[in-house]
Amino acid sequence: MKKLSLLVLVLIFACGGKLKAEEKPNIVFILIDDMGWKDVGFMGSEFYETPNIDKLADKGMRFTQAYANAANCAPTRSCILSGQYTPRHGVYTVGNSNRGKAQLRRLLAYENSLSISLDKITIAEALKPAGYVSAAIGKWHVGNTPQEQGFDFGIDRDEMGYKGHLKEGAAYLADSLTDIAINFIEKNNPKETGKPFFVYLAHHSVHTPIQAKEGYSKKYEKKEGVGCQSQAEYAAMVQSVDESVARINNSLEELGLSENTILIFFSDNGGHGTYTCQRPLRGGKGMYYEGGIREPMFVYWPGTVKAGTSCGQPVISTDFYPTFLKLAGAETPQNYTLDGADITPLFRGKNSLKREPLFWYFPAYLQAYSGLTDESRDPAFRTRPVSVIRDGDWKLLLFHEEWSLDGGREKISTNNSVELYNLKKDISETTNLANIETKKRDELLEKLFRLQEKTGASIVNNPNPKYKSE
Ligand SMILES: [Ca+2]
């Protein structure tokens, strides 16, 4: 006993209570592009086949209410990498923030930033002082280069000579990105380097163009669709993602690194409504209903995260940054704001987390595309400018057009500026309670405005001169 306490004391003295290099877990973060909440077997898809992903999800902890910070690619990625909500970095959308027919847009959207500015401290930069070596492999999409944003290694599709998901000579992008990730892991084996690694593997799958690996879609063409999922080539792309996850995991096992590596599976926004759907969730990519922002997620860390567990606490992709810092025993960068929460207590089985409500802010327009138009608020747009808050079981969406141009709070009972849902009772967001649960509505509105103020966000209110009312 005496010896043990002495050892503990010596350790605390020597390390200041911090983690030693060999105690720091490697972090493998696998980010799928456009994969919806229900696009995997472990979340209930009966059409797509993801046996390897399902097996790891079963051996780890699945998160049933994990959210992306946005309903499309670049903003979510910017939030993950910077640890901040969209108003702080200004990456609100992909490309132009005024999309769709000009005469149908009542407001002038805010200008969109195409990159995370270099003065942001990315997660790679924050992990570096804790001794991590890092790689960003695959879709980057946030301006500059991964290396300029603190990654030791970075490579994306264009440098690899791909057009879409295919390369002349039959190589398939998801496979090649996996090869590169495995090669990085082998070359940076902490048993040899003494340094833990952080791998950010961001697949381009299952984003458009919908291109299957040769021979992969046949199986699904013969298969009967289940519910609203039936697209064979999309299913084949999902299968390639499944194989990638299996190969990454096999490589960790072969190197004896599984027990000291946390593997996280996540996606950046909802499934594309032309090819897939997320029912019972409403909507898909580009919408701020659940189908556009709720993601499939699991955490696999054998020996640490209990197998066969599920967590129903709402989490959001800005949580990864502080969570990774905690895992790494790294300090929060000085004078730098993080909007997420450390969710490691959930990994240990805690079933609640003291935190602020979740917040989304999208001061832009996204035009409709074929599919799910009956699930958006209006058929011409997947979304118009909107701010969203999730607090407990409640979710409120505040639509900027009606708020700014139709009388705001004074006319709230008639101007249709607010939608309020109880997600516990109404996961499909079918029943707007804004004019029924008015006390809850006002409480959430107050909290939403506080979050907007805190993050420097404001309601869009400049009328669009090109707008033509009917
Ligand atoms: Ca995406």
TrEMBL record:
Residues 1-21 form the signal peptide. Pfam families: Sulfatase. Its cofactor is Ca(2+). Keywords: Calcium, Hydrolase, Metal-binding, Signal, Transferase. The keyword Electron transport does not apply. It comes from the Bacteria. GO terms for molecular function: arylsulfatase activity; metal ion binding; transferase activity. Residues 25-330 form the Sulfatase N-terminal domain. Coiled coil: none annotated. InterPro entries: Alkaline_phosphatase_core_sf (IPR017850), Sulfatase (IPR050738), Sulfatase_CS (IPR024607), Sulfatase_N (IPR000917). Belongs to the sulfatase family. PANTHER family: ARYLSULFATASE FAMILY MEMBER, ARYLSULFATASE G. This is Sulfatase-like hydrolase/transferase. It comes from Maribellus comscasis. The lineage of its organism: Bacteria, Pseudomonadati, Bacteroidota, Bacteroidia, Marinilabiliales.
